[in-house]
């Protein structure tokens, strides 16, 4: 039985009929934040409850990268290839410099502590955009229980000035986020507080002059489950995580198909030597599948 479930004809042009869904490693508790380092031929990802970042490479399999990781969650790379990490435990976003030292990008807004930065993306101007839901301070499982001081906002940190701005303030719990390949759109998942009637959708914003956001309509409602992390491919399709695997959503909001994964998926990223391997963090395991399309490479603008 195939784990590819096509729902629209276009889906077959993005997947490979005979590519396996491979489980690369398992035994973790809640893996998240995959990021590909092509120059090191490896993937980094967080194992949040175990307070560590792990490294996977085809040559050496799983090895430790950082432990403790301050209950890290989402990871990405900036325009200079440096690792950018969301940390629940320290309630901050950090950058790992090329020499290994750690720079704090953001830990407060208007004098109050951030909640627990969840996922992060770097725009072509170097600005760091991240979501700040409360999940990492809601229990002692994925961080440390603490009082919430700020609403669950989306923030942008300017690359030059370091100024932090709340750019989206009307979310229940913003989670995964991704720009379209031309950076004219920003997609942000809202996963709410995980109650029955909470939002389980992805909203889309138009990105204008000086990165001003307008719009914000519901772009797609995920079923089953909700969207956590997501990435965009070179054709502009959005690949969000979902309760039954990874979904493929066309730029017009139609679901084209699904990759069915045996465990609840938290996040994905494109990588591999050709850039068309989809790495999937799913509860206790790391999976990968090769696709017929690469991840988006966003040009400077
Ligand atoms: Mg997330």
From TrEMBL:
Pfam families: SGL. Keywords: Hydrolase. It comes from Shinella curvata. This is SMP-30/gluconolactonase/LRE family protein. InterPro entries: 6-blade_b-propeller_TolB-like (IPR011042), SGL (IPR013658), SMP-30 (IPR005511), SMP-30/CGR1_Lactonase (IPR051262). It comes from the Bacteria. Gene3D superfamilies: TolB, C-terminal domain (2.120.10.30). Signal peptide: none annotated. Residues 31-283 form the SMP-30/Gluconolactonase/LRE-like region domain.
């Amino acid at each position: 039985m195939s784990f590819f479930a096509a729902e629209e004809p276009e889906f077959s042009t993005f997947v490979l009929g005979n590519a396996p869904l491979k489980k690369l490693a398992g035994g973790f508790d809640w893996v998240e934040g995959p990021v590909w380092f092509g120059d090191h031929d490896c993937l980094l990802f967080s194992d949040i409850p175990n307070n560590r970042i792990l490294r996977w490479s085809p040559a050496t399999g799983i090895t430790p990268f950082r432990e403790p990781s301050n209950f890290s969650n989402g990871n990405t790379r900036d325009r200079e290839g440096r690792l950018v990490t969301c940390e629940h435990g320290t309630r901050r976003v950090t950058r790992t410099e090329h020499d290994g030292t750690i720079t704090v990008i953001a830990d407060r807004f208007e004098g109050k502590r951030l909640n627990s930065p969840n996922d992060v993306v770097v725009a072509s101007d170097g600005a760091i955009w991240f979501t700040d839901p409360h999940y990492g301070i809601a229990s002692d499982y994925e961080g440390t229980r603490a009082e919430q001081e700020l609403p669950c906002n989306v923030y942008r940190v300017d690359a030059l000035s370091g100024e932090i701005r709340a750019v989206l303030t009307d979310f229940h719990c913003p989670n995964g986020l991704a720009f379209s390949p031309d950076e004219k759109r920003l997609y942000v998942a809202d996963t709410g507080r995980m109650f029955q009637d909470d939002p389980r959708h992805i909203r889309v914003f138009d990105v204008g002059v000086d990165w001003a956001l307008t719009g914000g309509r519901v772009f797609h409602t995920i079923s089953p489950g909700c969207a956590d992390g997501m990435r965009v491919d070179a054709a502009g399709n959005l690949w969000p995580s979902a309760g039954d695997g990874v979904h493929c959503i066309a730029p017009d909001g139609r679901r084209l198909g699904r990759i069915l994964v045996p465990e609840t998926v938290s996040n994905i990223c494109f990588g591999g030597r050709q850039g068309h391997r989809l790495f999937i963090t799913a509860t206790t395991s790391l999976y990968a599948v090769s696709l017929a399309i690469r991840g988006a490479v966003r040009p400077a603008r």
